[in-house]
Specification:
The structure holds two protein chains of two kinds.
Chain A: H1 20-23, E1 46-54, E2 60-69, E3 72-78, E4 89-92, E5 97-100, E6 102-107, H2 146-151, E7 155-160, E8 172-176, H3 182-185, E9 186-196, H4 216-249, H5 265-274, E10 280-284, H6 287-299, E11 304-308, H7 316-321, E12 326-328, H8 347-353, E13 358-360, H9 371-379, H10 385-390, H11 394-399, E14 417-420, E15 431-436, E16 439-441, H12 446-454
Parallel strand pairs in A: 1-4, 1-5, 6-7, 9-10, 10-11, 11-12, 12-13
Antiparallel strand pairs in A: 1-2, 2-3, 5-14, 7-8, 8-9, 14-15, 15-16
Helix pairs in contact in A: 4-5
Chain B: H1 2-17, H2 23-26, E1 34-43, E2 49-58, E3 61-66, E4 76-79, E5 84-87, E6 89-94, H3 124-131, E7 134-139, E8 147-150, E9 152-155, H4 162-165, E10 173-177, H5 180-187, H6 196-226, H7 238-247, E11 252-257, H8 260-273, E12 277-282, H9 290-296, E13 299-302, H10 320-326, E14 331-333, H11 344-353, H12 359-364, H13 368-374, E15 391-395, E16 404-410, E17 413-417
Helix pairs in contact in B: 6-7
The chains are: A alpha/beta, B alpha/beta.
Chain lengths: ~450, ~425
């Protein structure tokens, strides 16, 4: 039932196709239909009245009113600007802050339960560096106890990625943190593909265990060969399709129908990315790795967003010149010994100053709930508050191609709405209510159950 | 400011002289300084907040605190411009500056390990913690062993020499551990302990051995006292000597422990052998047995909201700190991580959200309470006359996502100043 319809992109399979075709694009725009079964599960109309609405897209409405129905936001405006439907449940949220559900641009939700317990982990296949045919949706555990914990702090949507020890670890899913089942929650199944070049993938470096690829040269060569193989594979299939249609056009030809090439799941998985239909999430931390990775992406004309750039402070102008969004952080990554204490904390602000569209990610599973605090902390190091908030709402919605449905409080968008008693970015703020696809989600998790049992509630 | 002039002239002089001297040591700040911090919101921890408050620092100590404080004109004046001033943050559980020599994981009982022997005072993690407002840390042995080594207490005077970083006169602490770590470390090698039964059997056996050792020495000492010239001293054993000191109450016992049942067992063990547990560290299930902890006067040093990283952290809840506190337990929020150490203020602020700690209660969890756990609460942890002048001036409100240190003073000297270029450290320059 989940469809990812990808439209409107030129594709090229030429190895040396000029990058200029895509370099001008600030955003990766690809339309995705988010068809969530839970959207219509609760038809109840809710009206939130009296709150401070942080719309993200069109400023703050101090004393506002917001209506949700049929899973969508149906009205928003200042108090008294609309007629309240008779059948609506009106909730007084005076003194509260209302904002769109937060979006985590990289998490491992649903792939792990207890980090140290191997049987609960489905995070990464480490048998090979090249595993593009791993699909997060095949492992996504919708009933994970971690999901309600994250949700209780207002995170309503997230990218779920495999862990990063492989150069090509598989394909990301885009989830909603509520739903009856995995089918409900997996809004987009293969949204994007990480390409990691952070040094962490170089795991055969010891001389005792040495095997290919032992070095960064090896990793890069392995990637190049993989993409070349995928191009050849694509050509073989094109050739076959052509022969097949030729044969169909000439049914009398004695040669008969051609036989198809053997399917190769690894190479097949790469095709939408080679064709520029979906984005690569290009991860690098230090300048040399970043430039190698970007060079590789350009060689194969891959469309990409950047990930981390944690220690690339000397080349931020270069980063900006790429005109692609950056998933930045984690800003708590320790600086190198030669870096000032705030070198990484300051990255979001520095990128923003250079006009780069940024988004934050938790890069975690258990700590997804703390996503807004990283954005908040970045404001102490030069990122404007509104931009920090955008970087966990509208920016990621745009980067991941779902801005027509998510990321702001606008009529027609999915009713993922959070009600809290203060600034979304502050650690002291308590989230009071959460609506996902217009459904009011219970404010409970395994942790609240334990709290209530032992605090005598 | 005075220290800058002193430092610059020293560096210049040394530069002319030769390569041999360590400028870092020579640039050691003078303790005989006078600083007046005025126009601050003084979050004293001791007696509530003072608006438009001042703190006068003399010879490294807090000499006066209040609304109207007079200081001689020779004092360096820092106009806080309405910023918040707190005591230096104290981290009661840290493994930084040990160059990964955290666990002597070759035996489950290693009380003779001295963390001082591994202390790398040049570790930049000390600086990064300092820049997060941490002025004092307890550097502990790891949790591979049921009975680990003896800790050191440091002040984050990055750029000073090694001995200047040690907290003078701080009591000795020893690290115990329980639960998954020892049983995994030794069980995976097919050694004792492999279970929690094994864990406690190892601990009990070591303590019994220490009792015997202590008795032998007590007998010997008694003989000597009686004037028995034939008395022969027992053999010295570093390991048992350290454990005997536990039994004699000379070491503060800091126990890594997660699960509620193990918290109870550790307290029973302490009672059986007659020592006191100073604090349980991690203690993520303290909220389940908080009454028992409170009755025994045992503190906890816990995470704010870290959970799920292993089975024994599965029942961790972010309300642990406040539920335990409300039941009478002294609670500290600690880092156990180079990362969390850089923003303990934010971690403490989470207790205001999870359970409704007041501002002062939250602040206590990273100041006076960890100071008590380390045994230095008479010296640091609040802004009171006579205490060490370990102070943090904040940009923004410290108990929030947005507060970061602007200046950090230790013993009255500025060790970190955000407004300075480079590393922001007056007493340190790269390459010196």
């Amino acid at each position: 039932m989940i469809q990812s319809s990808v439209v409107g992109h030129q594709s090229s399979e030429a190895v040396v196709d000029p990058w200029s075709l895509v370099v001008g694009q600030l955003l990766i725009v690809f339309a995705i239909c988010l068809c969530s079964g839970s959207a219509s599960a609760q038809q109840k109309t809710f009206v939130l009245k009296g709150g401070k609405l942080l719309t993200i897209s069109h400023g703050t409405i101090e004393n506002g009113v917001l209506a949700m129905s049929g899973g969508k936001i149906t009205a928003i405006g200042p108090a008294g600007s609309m007629k309240i439907p008779k059948d609506a449940e009106v909730i007084d949220v005076t003194g509260m802050t209302v904002y769109p559900g937060l979006i985590d641009s990289e998490s491992y939700l649903g792939l792990t339960e207890i980090s140290a317990e191997g049987s609960t982990n489905d995070l990464i296949e480490t048998s090979d560096e090249i595993m593009p045919h791993m699909h997060v949706y095949d492992a996504f555990h919708a009933e994970s106890e971690l999901i309600p914990v994250a949700r209780l702090n207002g995170i309503t949507n997230a990218i779920v990625a495999p862990q990063s020890q492989d150069t090509l670890p598989g394909q990301d899913a885009f989830i909603q943190l509520d739903g009856k089942s995995a089918n409900d929650m997996l809004l987009v199944r293969d949204l994007a593909m990480p390409l990691n070049f952070t040094g962490e993938q170089r795991r055969n470096e010891s001389w005792e265990k040495r095997k290919f690829p032992q070095t960064r040269m090896g990793l890069a060569a392995q990637l190049r060969q993989t993409f070349l193989d995928a191009q050849d594979y694509s050509d073989r299939w094109s050739d076959y399709e052509k022969k097949k249609s030729d044969a169909a056009a000439k049914p009398d030809d004695k040669k008969g129908a051609p036989s198809p090439p053997k399917r190769d799941l690894k190479l097949e998985a790469l095709l939408p990315y080679l064709q520029g239909k979906k984005p690569i999430v290009l991860a690098a931390e230090e300048p040399s790795d970043l430039e190698t990775a970007v060079g590789l992406a350009r060689q194969f004309n891959l469309k990409f967003v950047l990930n981390h750039v944690s220690h690339s402070q000397p080349v931020l102008d270069y980063v900006a010149s790429l005109k692609v969004p950056v998933i930045v952080g984690p800003i708590y990554e320790s600086p190198k010994n030669y870096e000032r204490y705030d070198a990484v904390y300051g990255l979001p602000g520095e990128l923003y100053k250079r006009g780069v569209k940024i988004a934050f990610a938790s890069y975690d599973a258990h700590a997804v709930r703390n996503l807004p605090y990283a954005a908040g902390y970045a404001t102490a190091f030069g990122l404007p508050h509104d931009e920090a908030l955008k970087a966990i709402t509208l920016n990621p919605a745009e980067i991941w191609g779902v801005a027509d449905q998510l990321g702001s409080l606008d009529v027609g968008k999915t009713a993922n709405v959070v009600v809290a008693d203060g600034d979304p970015l502050d650690v002291k703020t308590d989230v009071k209510r959460i609506f996902i696809s217009g459904r009011q989600v219970p404010m409970t998790s395994r942790q609240t159950v334990l709290r209530d049992r032992y605090s005598g509630k | 400011m005075r220290w800058m002039i002193v430092k610059v002239s020293l560096v210049a002089a040394l530069g002319l002289a030769s390569f041999q001297s360590s400028a870092q040591q020579s640039a050691e700040p003078s303790a005989h300084n006078e600083v007046l911090i005025k126009n601050a919101v003084v979050m004293a921890v001791a007696h509530g907040n003072i608006q438009n408050g001042s703190v006068y620092v003399k010879d490294g100590k807090i000499a006066a605190v209040g609304k109207d404080v007079s200081a001689p004109s020779s004092a360096t004046v820092i106009d806080a411009g309405g910023k918040y001033l707190t005591p230096g943050i104290i981290d009661s559980h840290s493994h930084i500056a040990l160059d990964d020599d955290v666990n002597e994981a070759t035996s489950p009982v290693t009380p003779q390990m001295m963390m001082m022997d591994a202390f790398d005072y040049q570790d930049k993690a000390i600086y990064r913690g300092l820049a997060g407002g941490v002025t004092t840390s307890l550097l502990l042995h790891g949790s591979a062993n049921m009975i680990g080594g003896q800790a050191i207490v440091i002040k984050h005077k990055y750029g000073a020499n090694r001995d200047a970083m040690l907290f003078p006169g701080a009591p000795r602490s020893i690290k115990f551990a329980s639960g998954e770590n020892p049983k995994r470390v030794y069980g995976s090698k097919d050694q004792l302990p492999f279970t929690r039964m094994g864990n406690f059997a190892v601990q009990r056996a070591a303590l019994v051995e220490a009792q015997d050792y202590m008795r032998e020495w007590d007998d010997y000492d008694a003989k000597v006292k009686r004037g028995d010239k034939d008395a022969k001293p027992p053999k010295h054993d570093l390991k048992l000597e350290a454990l005997a000191d536990v039994l004699r109450g000379k070491l503060l016992v800091q126990i890594h422990c997660y699960r509620a049942d193990e918290l109870l067992t550790e307290m029973a063990m302490a009672k059986e052998f007659g020592y006191k547990v100073r604090a349980f560290h991690h203690a993520l299930e303290a909220y389940k047995v908080a009454d028992d902890l409170a009755a025994q006067g045992v503190a906890i040093a816990t995470f704010s909201d870290w959970w799920g990283f292993k089975q024994e952290a599965w029942d961790a809840i972010p309300w642990n700190a406040v539920i335990s506190m409300r039941k009478g337990v002294r609670v500290a929020i600690k880092s156990d991580s180079e990362d969390f150490a850089r923003r303990l203020n934010q971690e403490a602020a989470k207790t205001m959200r999870y359970g409704g700690a007041t501002e002062e209660e939250a602040l206590k969890m990273i100041t006076i309470n960890p100071a008590w756990i380390i045994g230095v609460d008479d010296r640091v942890g609040s802004i009171e006359v006579g205490k060490d002048a370990d102070l943090v001036l904040w940009d923004g409100y410290p108990l929030s996502s947005f507060g970061v240190p602007n200046k950090v003073l230790i013993d009255g000297d500025i060790y970190f100043d955000r407004s300075l270029p480079g590393f922001g450290m007056p007493h340190y320059r790269e390459g010196e």
